[in-house]
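Model: You mentioned two targets. I'll fold them one after the other.
Researcher: Yes, keep them separate.
Model: Target one:
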Amino acid sequence: MSPEREALSPPNLINPTAADFGGAQFGQAQPQTIPNSVDSHILMPDDATVRVGGTVTFNVNGGSHGIGIYPVSKKRLVKTSMKTSVRVVRASANNATLTANSDYKIVDGRHHLIIETDTAANQPRIDDPFHRYLSTSGSIPGQPLTAGAFLTGSTSTTVPGHRIEIRFTKAGRYLVVCQNRGHLINDHMFGFVNVVDNDDKDDDHGHNDHRDK
């Protein structure tokens, strides 16, 4: 049985004019080493911390990105399971397209279900409308599972892409994923935002390269 899911208030989306953490890069900053590759499908930093009520601005770089945000436990481990196996998010299958297009269940370090997504034929994006905090390119609950448009990313050092600013109003740890199936499943494009109260210690959330886990 899937664990119960907490009802969440949506984040406040505001104009990207200023932020408490304004330098988050969703995709490698321009100029990219190899565009549209595992080298450019990264979040920098991949583990950021802000106070409750603070904002994070994601600067979108490169093409075919969508941002999904989900609350998780503070443990860093994030796993995903196909119906036939359990593995770390980065795929090891030889057929990358088949791997990305499969159905997945992603759980956090406490084994709580975070994202449950159908196959690409039925759900084009990595998306779970019942548990998400934010989705830029997913589906609309109660409507046909059509894909939302990807964000427009920067194409050079002089042509900026979308900037998405999010205010976090509740303490906790949040998983940030690219909703493009190939970027998340095959290239491991995800990171974390830690939202702390004044009583929390920032050093509890040290930086971590999840690609090596």
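Model: Target two:
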Amino acid sequence: MKSKNISEKILIDKIKKELQNHNYENVNENWLKTKKKLIGKRQIENDEFKNKLLKYEGNSKRIYSIAASIALILGLSYFIYQFFIKVEFIEYHTSKDIHQKYELPDGSVVWLNINSKISYPDKFFRNKRILHLEGEAFFNIRPIPGKTYRVLTPFTEIEVVGTEFNVKAYHDENIEVVTVKTGVVSVRRKKIEYLLHPGESSLLNKADSMFIKEENSDVNYEFWKTQKLEFRDTPLNVVIKTLESVFHKRIVIVSAGLDTIGLNATYVNLGLNEILDAIALTLDVEINQGIDSVIIAQPE
């Protein structure tokens, strides 16, 4: 009887070990071989032990069946993905001289500023629409019930349903800004999330990781797209910062007292030189073009 108990224990431990190690492919085959061998030697005589064997046999078959089903599902999923819904990425980028308008597969529209790039899958999957951005872009997202839209930059994640908003995320600039024109936008940075409404912005300082929400104070954030600049009693030093940002040109005020002079003007479809000429006439200042910068000074 002792030898029978030892045989029973060895068999049970063996099956347990196979199941615990998830050796599902070997469980069924080894189990059938072992059972046949034991039955052939008439070593299975105890009804209680027979019940144990049947219990483990049932478990092994059930687990093996589940494992096989999972493998089949995964295999088919991979096959379907590879050969039927394999995703390719579409990429657009602009040079330093032009900005461009693109229509996305879902009917949404994106305006891409200079030196910028977007990429997105040629097929949006299920309820997710995802786009990657480097640089600056203005989005007009078509609302689709049940489908959100995510714009990913290197530092933030923006999620919307249907709205208009601008994202400025140049890799060589220290500040990343999201500004909402219509609708509601969720902007996340790690564990911090802000809901932005029309007229609000989020600002991320990449140098110190400060991430804040505030009222948008830049009425000209769309200039690169609309080609319209508006100034309402705006101090000249603020005007200069705006011009430097949109035209990527260094402008220096060298005469004391000019910084705080207010400017009231609207410029539409004008280049930097035309705007500077207009400012010179309006404020009675001199504009001198240098090699790498523009100099503004009091007339001599």
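Researcher: Noted. Anything on target two?
Model: Residues 1-6, 19-27, 37-50, 73-84 have pLDDT under 50 and may be disordered.
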